[in-house]
Amino acid sequence: MATATPTSVILPTQGWSDACEEIAAQLGSADELLVVCDDTVPAIVDRIDEFGDSVRLVVAGDPEGCSGKANAIAAGMEAAEHDRFVWTDDDFHHPPDWLARLRVDYDRHGPTSELPVFVGQDPLAAALEPLYALSGTLAVFLADIPWAGSLVFERDDLDDEAAFLEALRRTVSDDGLLMEHVDFTTVKRTRYVETGGSIRKTLETQVRFTQIVYRYDPTGTAAQAAFGTGLAAGCLLFPFPALALVTLSMASVYAAFGIRRWTFLSTYPVVIAAIPLLVYGLARRSFIWGGRRYRWHDKFDVTVEPE
């Protein structure tokens, strides 16, 4: 039996979580889990001791000119002992075969990413799930866009690791930047990710998602605006046939990705609201994420402020 390639799993987090436990239980004898925080968290230090050398705390420090997530990923990659990286998040369930399946994916496809399905935790976020399914699941799959919540690649896949890490510490989106440096295959395997929690949090997330797409794919944003405007106009001009068409179309998207949620029924109003939400996301001058306010002036020009 072939020996598994040693892997460094990088997990940005603000505290010990179920994800830490789930991933630690899947590590091979040569693997490591790097739990990356802004500062030392005593609760994490206490739990890490239970796992010996396989789980380590990496203190990234406060971000300067980038997002906390990007700063954590950069610190994790610099601290990693192995050449194979797995990036992940702590906001979804990691089943017992999660890491093993990513290993198989890399052996088959090279750099590989799974897919998110964003599940709303407040009324607005739940209503917007069809929009998330289109832009965060379907489009990500069709375009082979990496999702930083669950992906695998190796150092040699990067054209210039030093330049990548330097750029990572000057931007907001870790997976947006990675997309420009590594070619990924996105497999049709989903993970349910909770989003929102309050109307305010959902609006802040909408701004962040919108600006990530705009900064890394302005042409795609323009195409999205043109298509969305035409679709919304059709819904307003022909409400009854459009209601049936967009609802059934979204139901087929849900079925294709195994999404068992009633929220496809909100597709019609979401289609109409999509353009106002896009304008709102582009017009906002800042957004809040993880307890910090970000002003994203340009792709590599970010101001970080306390919330």
Summarize the structure.
The protein is an alpha/beta fold.
Describe this structure in words.
- 37% of the residues are buried.
- The protein is 48% helix and 21% strand.
- The model has no long low-confidence stretch (mean pLDDT 95).
- With 307 residues, it is of the alpha/beta class.
- The chain has a single domain, classed as Spore Coat Polysaccharide Biosynthesis Protein SpsA, Chain A.
- The strands form two sheets. A seven-stranded mixed β-sheet has the order 3-2-1-4-6-5-7, sandwiched between helices.
- The longest helix has 20 residues, at 218-237.
- It is built from twelve helices and ten strands.
- It comes from Natronorubrum aibiense.
- Keywords: Glycosyltransferase, Membrane, Transferase, Transmembrane, Transmembrane helix.
- It is found in: Membrane.
- This is Glycosyltransferase.
What descriptors fit this protein?
307 residues; alpha/beta; Spore Coat Polysaccharide Biosynthesis Protein SpsA, Chain A; seven-stranded mixed beta sheet; three-stranded antiparallel beta sheet; 12 helices; globular; transmembrane helix; transmembrane; transferase
Which structural class fits the helix and strand makeup?
A: alpha/beta
Output the CATH topology: Spore Coat Polysaccharide Biosynthesis Protein SpsA, Chain A
- The low-confidence parts are none
Amino- and carboxy-terminal Cα gap: 52 Å
Proportion in β-strands: 15-25%
Pathway: Sphingolipid metabolism; Lipid metabolism; sphingolipid metabolism
Subcellular location: Membrane
Protein name: Glycosyltransferase
GO molecular function: glycosyltransferase activity
